[in-house]
Amino acid sequence: MASRAGPRAAGTDGSDYEHRERVAQHYQMSVALKSEIKKLNIAHAALWMLVAAQVVVSQLNLVSHKLVATPYKWEYIYLLSIVPTVFSFMALPKNNTSYLVISMISAGLLSLGPIFYGGMEMFPMAQQLYRHGKAYRFIFGFSAVSVMYLVMVIALQVHGWQIYYSKKLLDAWVTNTQEKKKK
User: Are 39 and 83 in contact (CB under 8 A)?
Assistant: First the structure.
C-alpha cells in the first residue's frame, strides 16, 4: 500500500513491534500499586468516617444511647489512623519514599495497634454474647460487639493490604533509584 508521497518505507507497517522500547517493569508495577493503594486509602477513609460518625453522634448526644452505643476506648485511638492515609496520599504523586515509610510505620502503630487492642477490650463482651446471648450495647438494634468486630475484620484486611502494597511499591521505587545511581 502506498501513501500520497509514494511507496511506504519498509518496516513501517507495524511489524516492528518486537523491537520497540517497552515501559520498564518497575514503572508498570508502580502505576498498578499506586492504583491499589489509592483504592485502599479510600476504603480506609470510609471506615474511618463510620467510626468518626459513631463517636461524634455519641459524644454530642444526637441520638439516644439505645440506638447508637457509646464508643469503646479503642475507637477514639483509631481516629488517629487517618494520619497514615494522609501521608500515603502525599507520597503517591511525587514518589516520596519518606512519606511512604512514615505511612507504613504509622499504619502499624495507629491503625493495627488500636484494632488489636479493641479486639482484646471487647473480647469479654463477645464471650458473654456467645455464651449467654446477652448484649448490653446496640448499634441500630444490632449487638455493638458484633458490629464492631465486623468493622475490625474489614479494617484489618484494608490496613494489612495497605502495608503490603506500600512495601511492594517502596521496593519498586528503591529499585528504580538504585538503577539510576548505577548509570
Answer: no
